[in-house]
Amino acid sequence: MAQMNMIQALNSAMDVMLERDPNMLIFGEDVGYFGGVFRCTEGLQEKYGEQRVFDTPISEGGIVATAIGMGVNGLRPVVEIQFSDYIYPAFDQVVSELARLRYRSAGQYWAPVTIRTPCGGGIHGGQTHSQSPEAIFAHVSGIKTVMPSNPYDAKGLLISAIEDDDPVVFFEPKRLYNGPFDGDTDKVAGGWNRHEKGEVPTGYYTIPIGQAAIVQAGSALSILGYGTMVHVAVAAARRAGVDAEVIDVRSMMPLDIDTIAVSVKKTGRCVIVHEATRTCGYGAELSAQVQEECFWHLEAPIQRVCGWDTPYPHAQEWAYFPGQERVIAAMHEVLAVSG
Amino acid sequence: MAQMNMIQALNSAMDVMLERDPNMLIFGEDVGYFGGVFRCTEGLQEKYGEQRVFDTPISEGGIVATAIGMGVNGLRPVVEIQFSDYIYPAFDQVVSELARLRYRSAGQYWAPVTIRTPCGGGIHGGQTHSQSPEAIFAHVSGIKTVMPSNPYDAKGLLISAIEDDDPVVFFEPKRLYNGPFDGDTDKVAGGWNRHEKGEVPTGYYTIPIGQAAIVQAGSALSILGYGTMVHVAVAAARRAGVDAEVIDVRSMMPLDIDTIAVSVKKTGRCVIVHEATRTCGYGAELSAQVQEECFWHLEAPIQRVCGWDTPYPHAQEWAYFPGQERVIAAMHEVLAVSG
Amino acid sequence: MATRLHIPAPPSRPGERPDYSNIQLPKAGELARPEPLIDAAEIRELPFSMIRVLDEGHQAIGPWNPGLDTGILKEGLRHMLLTRLFDDRMLKAQRQGLLTFYVKSTGEEAVSVAQCLALRPDDMLFPTYRQQALLITRGIKPVDMMCQCLSNSRDNLEGRQLPVLYSWKEVNFFSISGNVGTQFPQAVGWAMAASYKGENSIAASWVGEGSSAESDFHSALTFGSVYRAPVILNIVNNQWAISTSQNIAGGEQNPFAAKAIGYGIPGLRVDGNDFLAAYAATRWAAERARQGGGPTLIELYTYRAAAHSTSDDPSRYRPEDEWECWPLGDPIERLKGHLISMQAWSEAEHQELEKELAQHVIDSWQEALSYGTMSDGPQAPTAAMFEQVFKELPPHLIKQREQAGL
Amino acid sequence: MATRLHIPAPPSRPGERPDYSNIQLPKAGELARPEPLIDAAEIRELPFSMIRVLDEGHQAIGPWNPGLDTGILKEGLRHMLLTRLFDDRMLKAQRQGLLTFYVKSTGEEAVSVAQCLALRPDDMLFPTYRQQALLITRGIKPVDMMCQCLSNSRDNLEGRQLPVLYSWKEVNFFSISGNVGTQFPQAVGWAMAASYKGENSIAASWVGEGSSAESDFHSALTFGSVYRAPVILNIVNNQWAISTSQNIAGGEQNPFAAKAIGYGIPGLRVDGNDFLAAYAATRWAAERARQGGGPTLIELYTYRAAAHSTSDDPSRYRPEDEWECWPLGDPIERLKGHLISMQAWSEAEHQELEKELAQHVIDSWQEALSYGTMSDGPQAPTAAMFEQVFKELPPHLIKQREQAGL
Ligand SMILES: Cc1ncc(C[n+]2csc(CCOP(=O)(O)OP(=O)(O)O)c2C)c(N)n1
Ligand SMILES: Cc1ncc(C[n+]2csc(CCOP(=O)(O)OP(=O)(O)O)c2C)c(N)n1
Ligand SMILES: [Mg+2]
Ligand SMILES: [Mg+2]
Fold this sequence. Notes:
The complex is a heterotetramer, with 2 copies of chain A and 2 copies of chain C.
Chain A: E1 2-3, H1 6-20, E2 24-28, H2 44-48, E3 53-55, H3 60-72, E4 76-80, H4 91-98, H5 101-104, E5 114-119, H6 134-138, E6 144-146, H7 151-163, E7 168-173, E8 199-200, E9 213-216, E10 221-225, H8 228-240, E11 244-248, E12 251-253, H9 257-267, E13 270-277, H10 282-294, E14 303-307, H11 317-320, H12 324-336
Parallel strand pairs in A: 2-3, 2-4, 4-5, 5-7, 6-7, 10-11, 10-13, 13-14
Antiparallel strand pairs in A: 1-8, 6-12, 9-11
Helix pairs in contact in A: 1-7, 3-4, 8-12, 9-10
Chain C: H1 70-95, H2 109-117, E1 124-126, H3 132-137, H4 142-150, H5 183-197, E2 203-208, H6 215-226, E3 231-237, E4 240-241, E5 244-245, H7 259-262, E6 267-271, H8 275-290, E7 296-301, H9 322-325, H10 331-341, H11 347-370, H12 395-403
Parallel strand pairs in C: 1-2, 2-3, 3-7, 6-7
Antiparallel strand pairs in C: 4-5
Helix pairs in contact in C: 1-2, 1-10, 1-11, 2-8, 4-11, 5-6
The structure holds thiamine diphosphate (2 copies) and magnesium ion (2 copies).
One magnesium ion (MG) binds at residues 208-210, 238, 240-241, 304 of chain D.
């Protein structure tokens, strides 16, 4: 075990896998010599050589397309899209190719590509360094979609993603890279060293894709979230003194609806939180499925707390970010009514 | 008034607008001399000249990008993406540019672009000629998203879209081009001439974006759908002898939730139907909003009848398509329970 | 002076006389053949000429003459002829309502056949929907291809794909995408992996001249050239992209092969209806790639003789007799003429071969029909719909499969 | 023989001596200047040379010398100097925590200033984040730019955008996108509209050499060339794209200007630190575009002297003294030297100007601060967050604005 922040945990996952699998390789913009703009691949080129960890032209479409070709030829590419806001030039290659190849070739061909990409706001990055496009990918049949909320999960999930023979879009909530963030901007940001999930095994381990985690048990209501919002939810519940069960969804596709349904059936109340814009965000799917599974147990309407349906603004970041106050208001709302 | 199928109605809308607005122009793959692979722009180049209606290179990204530049320079471009399955190469230009320009420039710049694109299956087109990606676009702040279900609406909505100063993605359910299709593949396909919405004014008129339509009133349950599925829903209700209120959503963004909420509050039961894959489809948003607005009126869980979460297969098309049987099963399910 | 929007026109439109006066054809045999490992900077003029081997009298001449023995030439002729007959039969089947869709490659058979023969069997092919002759050349039986087109019980893709969007891993033929152009940079990635693994098989990919406008074209050329991937990137310029002429794709300005220059790689422009020229250019590029010289861009100049697909009606946008006037002729006739001129072939033998292959196609079709059609069983299994979305069925698909009663 | 993945290296890495021996610089004044309406096919070798006007002794020589009067040269010098001082101050402000982000253009000022002066005010500019000097040259006051960077109460974008992602419609300066490259084909569309309307203003756009790998580059060149749009497409080759050298973008193989050849349009390669050369090349391209000759691709060869942005640390990937060794020098020093050599300028006058502009920047900064900062008010209005998503607020945003208490 070692103390790691999320960057180090991700780096460690890639290090472990480069060591174990000679067919794994890493490429993307600035990931080689420099080690990535967020430093997630730091030291890996030096350690494994530039045949295995290298820089690419600024062409997200080209990155994903060549990764597909390599995957088809027996390699296991892990590529970085520098910000998930920049994944759209690769969208056709992801949707029409990476996601569809196994199906359309009846299993003859597939590409075990992992796309790592930082997402989310809270770093004053403005509208093109803050987006959370996970719902768009979860809608596409043929790719798995995950987002960890802490270093321990990040490493375990990334190793699972790399080993998975299906393509995985691996979202990294960049606001959590250096420490947990609970939405309180007045507090001095702390690191992962004071968080239990900052203790990370140095070797190989996995966290299966498709399993939600109960972050804290509770009986008053269930909060479903992932990434940064898990920490906001926990803090909001604490601050409001609500005995909330907080579930870290972790895997958007496939979704662990069973864990969620058990919780909501128990509490009868549900708040869904995410940073992405509300309309057609992943919260809509969560809400629909919870309603489908737990209708007879629901004692109040399911609430969604999401980013507003606007681009992510720069200066108004904290008015945009679905912070503790909004989560608390939603909790109060679902608790106020009795069915 | 004249008898028109949906192709003719769309053609008429563009004809009317080319006549009215010298700054409107049309371009896209094969839309010029040839008149489009579905013939929606037939005769328009001949009538208005090739400065106003012209062919483009096969580059969806280039089509949308140049449309944006033209829009900024005072024109009102209407572009065709030959199949909505091919819109992904333009995704970055749509999401990061077209949708965001007004916002990021604080209203200095905008591009009143209309993107027409045929969607949906039922024509044995296989996975790359059958997709319904509307949810992906409804998730993107800054664009409007509509889909008509008949010639009359198609023309009125298209004129609204063209006149709208915001960008609009205009989905055309290609299975409805030549006639209504209610999911019954054994029946010989009829044309629009026997349908009241096949009567279309030859001149200018609009249907406002953001208004749902009640296709048939009913009291037993509400069915929410759009495009081809509207006809499937009506037929299914008739076949099952269910007094369903069928609502044609028409506009996904903005959504006319008021009309929908009134209906569901009245019936207490709701079935949502669409052809797109289920997970994170637009039905999830409809379900979430109906649940939010009508929770205390719901007497049964909201049901979604959607395309399966797989690519659209070629030979198994009718097993994939959410046909009458599946809609009927869902109606029976929501009717079977009483709260 | 104000400008005006320039809209490139095709050489001719319906009702006009086909006009190819704009096409400058160098004489066969004229162009020098550089060493395959030459510095790309030294051959920047190559794309502006055209590699041609067969002259008017069907003689193979000049430095690009690959000097093939008659065995391989006859093999090529056989594959081209079989492809043409296969295409004709499939078109008929579509007209009969037995196929939902079909795409012919008529007039372009030399491209796939000659290029395929110039490659090794372990070289990986990333084709478009118009490269069915690659499969024929690599020995896939017509009956098996027909089964895919019929989505029947023997369809190797189990009904998932539109007719002609083949995938055949056994012969290193990549799954054809419905989205044009995407395979180009994938081929580069495949080739990069070959380099990475130290294997010396190469990749070859094809796009139509129309599709070369897609962004994937630029990705492919960029990554291919930056990493010196062992790949051959082919543009099949068959003059038309559905209804738009090559001028709408940029062909008015320049040969498509000239795009190579900007990326510092060789660009070859080839008479695509000249079997020997297509073979020779591919051989040159393959040699270069295998020796570490990186990618080559090849433009194969040809003509799409048939409709774009069975959904198309070319009489609406081009003169009906354009192909007859096409200055580069028919690739089958030209190879046949060459073999005859070598006294290795005769009209009688040709007729015999045609008869044999026609019968082969008829027999194959009968056999294919015995495995079912899409409308009448037996068909591809319905449950296949849920399989291969992922390697293993996730819970939600198991549930959906149950809901579907499968 | 098996190949190996080729990974292009930069000329030098931290700890090494900067090495520019690979750069072949033609002498100033050597290159012929064709007529602007020349057939692009006749000038295919231009991209492989470099347009240079200022010689070692700061004399303007050769056919590309635009023969500018000293008034415009002094104006250019002033704008470049102001840009540099502005950048320095903003960097400091970011270090002080008053700006969330900043991007300098140090070392590249001639590109924007000279090109802007060579255009007409009604010509539309589609810039990157490193073209702030276009705004300075078009008369936007530093204080107004500072307000945008501070997201304060006078920010013309009302806090919506990251610092430096300016938009200034009054001076035909397009909204800068955070996604690199997207503006290139948009500029083509703008220019097509100008043609359509019969207006003769033209568009100019810029991308970095790194971003020229994006697919939008190919769209821009394709559409620009097919429709002969009146547009100037500029690649600013400042050698670096964050941490990757121009070799990773394809610069190892070829000058970026050579990409023009494939599209049949002129490609010019210019000494980007030579004010006169940048001016002359732009003038040439503008004349060509305005007369219906279509697009020109210009590569401006320069060096990114500062960090990529305030989020970057270039000492990790390149020698600290690389800029000092840069063979094309400092654009400000070179223009100053030229003016002095013409006896139109002196060290004393230069110092005077520097002092004046430094004071101007200080005053502007003080004024900007008086309109607020992002951390201390007054700030951009919070409710602006919901506005301009659409032209009018749709019902769901009215509701959300209420929920936000705004
Ligand atoms: C991304 C995408 N856009 C558009 C289409 C529709 N489409 C299919 S084939 C075709 C024309 C392609 O022409 P070309 O590349 O010249 O190939 P050819 O058909 O001549 O062999 C078009 C536009 C598509 N399949 N994919
Ligand atoms: C689509 C997209 N991909 C990646 C990025 C991240 N990014 C911002 S600037 C940059 C480097 C650009 O380099 P270059 O084009 O050479 O311009 P320069 O910074 O040198 O002016 C990168 C990779 C981005 N902004 N947009
Ligand atoms: Mg073609
Ligand atoms: Mg650069």
